Amino acid sequence: MAHDRVVERRSAGRAGGVGRPRARAEADPEPVLPGRPGRRRRGRPVSCFDSADESAHYGFSVCMLLQQYRAQLGWEAAPVVELGTGDASAIADVVAGLPDLRVHSYDISADSVESARANIAGRGLSDRYTVELGDFFDQADAAGGEPVTTAIANPPYIPAPDRDILMPELWGGERGNDLTLQLLKAGYDNVITAVASYADPVTTVSTAADLGYRVVNFLAMGLDYGPYSSEPKVREHIRRIVAEGRGWAGDDEYMVAVALFTRDPAIPGDRSGQLLRALQL
User: Is 205 helix (H, G, I), strand (E, B) or coil?
Assistant: First the structure.
């Protein structure tokens, strides 16, 4: 699910808001069911080991982290909030696979909200996965009036000097981590978010530490450049971030990790160093 090979992504339409275009570009092969060659799972409950959507790595990682830290995160008693919904496929599969999970999601794109609600309803999850049109940072704290301690996000992270790039919706700010930093500063005890190796993860991890967060755990994988990372303006900007020692990218590849950041002293461990090493830093 290379971030710039799958255009089903979030966009930083305005500070604090997230939306995603609905068209999909160069898609990676869709996973098939284990032991059932050629047969794909669609609209059926899945386990954490079976995610057949455009953001498979993200959905798989969120599911694994939520399941591994079920008791500590307490999501059986309180909802999880999501920054950016897109078409909801990735997290709908997670909700289907974790029957006690409830998610309140927010997106600034009316088209994305309409598509997401239809996909969620088609999976029979409307009672546990809700989507609201609006700015996450304006509305998420009031999600149902219930206490919320955990937020999840797969934000745009293409770095560039400005949003004048092939797909502006994928722009993550000059360093690629604008929304990630904003989410960390929003005050949630637990944040599960994607962290890209070329989007200044050094600043992301150090800022998280300054805010009292530790990296409890993460799942990382290597991805190939697609047309949006390969755009000359973006590629040159990534080279500058790498030259400054703030990120990593190969000639045509980079790393992405989905990490659980926490400020909860009851959740032990700090893998911040391991996260940076997994991102080749």
Answer: helix
Average pLDDT over residues 59-66: 96
| pLDDT (tens digit per residue) in 169-209 | 899 999 999 999 999 999 999 999 999 999 999 999 999 99
| CA–CA–CA angle 226, 18, 253 (5° rounding) | 20
CA 149 to the chain's CA centroid = 17
CB atoms within 10 A of CB 16: 17
Please state, as a whole number, how many other Cβ atoms lie within 10 Å of the Cβ of residue 71: 10
Structure tokens at 86: 């897109």
Q: How far apart are CA 145 and CA 176, in angstroms?
A: 32
Residue 142: the pLDDT is: 55
Cα separation of 279 and 275, whole Å? Answer: 6
Which residues, at least 6 apart from 195, have a Cβ–Cβ distance to it below 8 Å?
Answer: 177, 180, 201, 204, 205, 218, 256, 257, 258, 259, 275, 279
Residue 50, token pair as written in the block: 């079976």
Strand stretches in 100-249, DSSP E = 103-107, 129-133, 150-153, 190-196, 214-224
Tell me which residue of 137, 242, 234 sits closest to 179, measured CA to CA: 137
pLDDT digits 0-9 by tens, 27-50: 333 332 223 223 333 444 444 533
Go through the domains of the chain in sequence order and give each one's CATH number: 56-278 (3.40.50.150)
Provide the CA 160 distance to its chain's centre, in angstroms: 19
The CA–CA distances, whole Å, from 269 to 82, 101, 215, 259, 266 equal: 24, 24, 8, 13, 10
